[in-house]
């Protein structure tokens, strides 16, 4: 499908996805003040999984009968997705919301490179240029933050390391999702991943900590659960009425959306959202990351096989 001008519906859907993904780390930050990362992640999977099972119960139940031959790949993808969500939340705990959204941009970058090797996709010089710009921007942003956060360098480095690992595990999940989608259907694959993650995390979580949440905390936690459905539902609908590469390019604006939201809400609700210290060079680096990500997405010459919406991703979320 190719459209020279974006349909109004696609623009609105992309805007919904950008706002949903952009706001996710702010909501997570609120939850993490009271609840541990394991329990937060468990609730996210449980809420999203429950709604998915109710909403898509017929195709899911039909597809569950064919799981046997694909069980190893399903287990690998589910474990990778669980690790992705946990690592992202842990990384966010030691990092800022804007920093987390920028570093998770490594996920689509790594997936694009993996797709060239595994799925034999084309790799044009424009895509290579986009990758180069993204890497330079991320490096500049990283180095500037090291100077600004001199008193908390260890925490910042740990957060960046965890976020990079989150991006890597998302690539494993995305590859499994891509392979399994045409065999089992996106709804069945996603439901299995949610169920597996919930079962894995349940024995390790601390549900008692949920009692310490105030009203804002409860709202934030529930929002984290439904955020996946809002963001990826809008994304999936957008690529049905507009080129997927162009949709992906617009979603490169998510980190900028997060930074703007942090700036606004840190003034309106400083108790819940802390302001982020930044510099002109760091902002320039962030813009390079966004520009490089958009260029790499637009450089895809051929439409790839559609993936089911990834639950976090924040490039995790």
What does this structure look like?
- By secondary structure, this protein is mainly α.
- It has one domain (8-298).
- The chain is built from 13 helices and no strands.
- The protein has helices at residues 8-32, 37-55, 57-63, 71-93, 97-103, 106-118, 125-148, 153-184, 186-201, 215-241, 244-250, 254-268, 280-298.
- Helix 1 (8-32) packs antiparallel against helix 10 and helix 3 (57-63) packs across helix 9.
- Mean pLDDT is 80; it is low at 301-314.
State the share of residues found in helices, binned by percent: over 70%
Number of domains as seen in the coordinates:
1
Q: Output the number of helix runs.
A: 13
**What is the arithmetic mean of pLDDT?**
80
Spans of at least 5 consecutive residues whose pLDDT stays below 50 are: 301-314
What overall form do the CA principal axes indicate? globular
Annotation keywords:
single chain, 13 helices, 317 residues, mainly alpha, globular, 0% strand
SSE layout:
Blueprint: H1 8-32, H2 37-55, H3 57-63, H4 71-93, H5 97-103, H6 106-118, H7 125-148, H8 153-184, H9 186-201, H10 215-241, H11 244-250, H12 254-268, H13 280-298
Helix pairs in contact: 1-5, 1-10, 1-12, 2-4, 2-9, 2-10, 3-9, 4-8, 4-9, 5-12, 6-8, 7-13, 8-9, 11-13
Brief characterization of the structure:
This protein has 13 helices and no strands.
């Amino acid at each position: 499908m190719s459209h020279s001008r974006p349909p109004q519906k696609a623009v609105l859907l992309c805007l919904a996805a950008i706002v949903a993904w952009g706001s996710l780390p702010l909501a997570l930050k609120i939850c993490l003040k009271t609840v541990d990362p394991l329990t937060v992640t468990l609730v996210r999977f449980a809420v999203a999984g429950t709604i998915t099972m109710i909403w898509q119960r017929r195709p899911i139940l039909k597809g569950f009968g064919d799981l046997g031959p694909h069980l190893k790949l399903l287990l690998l993808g589910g474990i990778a997705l669980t690790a992705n969500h946990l690592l992202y939340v842990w990384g966010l705990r030691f990092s800022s919301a804007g920093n987390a959204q920028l570093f998770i941009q490594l996920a689509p970058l790594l997936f694009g490179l993996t797709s060239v090797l595994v799925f034999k996709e084309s790799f044009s010089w424009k895509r290579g240029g986009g990758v180069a710009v993204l890497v330079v921007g991320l490096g500049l942003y990283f180095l500037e933050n090291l100077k600004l956060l001199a008193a908390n360098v260890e925490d910042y480095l740990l957060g960046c390391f965890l976020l990079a690992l989150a991006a890597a595990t998302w690539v494993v999940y995305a590859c499994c999702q891509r392979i399994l989608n045409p065999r089992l259907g996106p709804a069945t694959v996603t439901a299995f991943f949610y169920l597996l993650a919930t079962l894995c995390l349940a024995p390790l979580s601390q549900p008692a900590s949920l009692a310490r949440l105030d009203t804002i905390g409860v709202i934030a936690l529930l929002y984290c659960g439904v955020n996946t459905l809002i963001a990826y539902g809008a994304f999936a609908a957008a690529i049905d009425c507009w080129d997927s590469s162009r949709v992906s390019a617009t979603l490169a604006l998510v980190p900028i959306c997060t930074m703007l939201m942090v700036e606004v809400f840190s003034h309106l609700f400083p108790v819940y959202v802390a302001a982020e210290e930044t510099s002109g060079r760091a902002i320039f680096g962030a813009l390079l990351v966004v520009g490089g990500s958009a260029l790499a997405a637009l450089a895809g010459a051929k439409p790839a096989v559609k993936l089911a919406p990834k639950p976090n991703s924040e490039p995790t979320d």
